[in-house]
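User: quick one, fold this
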Amino acid sequence: MSEAMRVLLVDDHVLFRKGVEAVLATRPEVEVVGEASDGNQAIALARETMPDVILMDISMPECNGLEATRRIKSEMPYVKILILTVSEEDKDLFEAVKAGAQGYLTKDLKAHLLFDVLHTLERGDTPLSAVMATKILHEFQQPGGPNAQVPETAELLTAREIEVLELIVEGQSNKEIAEMLVISESTVKNHLRNILEKLHLRNRTQAAVYAVRQGLVTDPP
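Assistant:
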């Protein structure tokens, strides 16, 4: 039996945290290892508990979720951070992507879908609502968009890596990409790892943004 996914909850509203904790407690494959009410507490608890996933709010006192995400990802790159917030502001979404968050969802997410989101993270895919994904793609197609400083190293990518990028932008999961390209899922993961390393990016969300911003692929219909 595989080990439970270790999850850290970060939100300044205790009732929301307890509600999420109660939902997660219904599944044996997930273990809540700690709760924090602001970014500073989140950083300290992340160091102490070494979670697999952090569910992170944005608007919090002392240190907000975006700053906490930047600091945690800098110190512990392996941690998957999912922004779970009421904010649908474009600037918060773009800052979360640049900070290294693996996903961005709003708090109106149905409780039963939370597990689907966690499993998506576990597979190495990126949970974004359709609205959020569309905002990213449209914004980063604009000249001088928030990701304008992404390194110009597209020539380092192989033809196969470009194919993988195209399918990532279309929203395909690793499993779906594997089936479409007739390769193994582990090979897809290796291609993605190579893409991120070559482009000096942190996750597949940033890779998708880069691909559209640099004109490597087109915005999906």
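User: anything notable?
Assistant: The longest strand covers residues 30-36.
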